[in-house]
Amino acid sequence: MIRAAFFVVLLIVITASSAFAQQDASGCTDPQLFTRMPGHSIAKCSDSPFEMRRFPVGPIGADGNAKLIEVEGQWRVVAFRPTEGTKASPLQIQRNFQNAAKAAGGTVEGSYPEWCKLQLDDSFKLGNSCTESGTTLKFTKDGKETWVFVDAFSAGQTGYRDGYT
Predict the structure, then answer these.
(1) CB-based contacts of 164, cutoff 8 Å, min separation 6
(2) Which has the closest alpha carbon to 165: 7, 80, 27, 46?
């Protein structure tokens, strides 16, 4: 088990509707490691002082699963939605976060760019655990690790994922 200083899940919801407010949800702020993509606002956020999650790493095996790394620490979820006129695809968002992580000295620990090829572990408590363009990122600084899972997905007719920790 890895003890991390902090770990976060960033969810980016892509939807056909442009009726979302451009203001951030009350009390929500951007993660320290990333600048949000242009044209996105924070739809929801949640924090917990200590949790455990199993992050997928490496490729998906023949059994349809990726290796899981158990991480404990502070937990934060930030969910972004596009504002009117934003047209980034889930894959484009995934690659944007991967490139930003690499530029900041982080590593890409897993990349899952296809719809529902990877199911997130139940420890993520996100309801529907199917990923669309998910990626696991890791940062190490001063002996402390920060793990991030980004899942960019199209909401379409199903609406917004609820049920975070």
Answers:
(1) 9, 44, 46, 77, 79, 125, 126
(2) 46
Nearest CA to 53 out of 130, 2, 150, 123 is that of 123
- What whole-number distance in Å separates Cα of residue 132 and Cα of residue 4? 26
Structure tokens at 105: 């000295």
Condensed to tens digits (0 to 9), the pLDDT of residues 69-98 reads 999 888 888 888 887 676 778 888 889 889
- 19 token code pair: 């009726």
Helix (H) or strand (E) holding 97: helix 90-103
Contacts of 139 (CB under 8 A, 6+ apart): 33, 101, 104, 105, 106, 107, 145, 146, 148
pTM above 0.70, yes or no: yes
> Do 74 and 43 meet the contact criterion of CB atoms below 8 Å apart?
no
| Residue 32: predicted pLDDT | 82
Q: Are 150 and 10 in contact (CB under 8 A)?
A: yes
Q: Hey, what's the torsion of the CAs at 85, 28, 98, 67, to 10 degrees?
A: -130
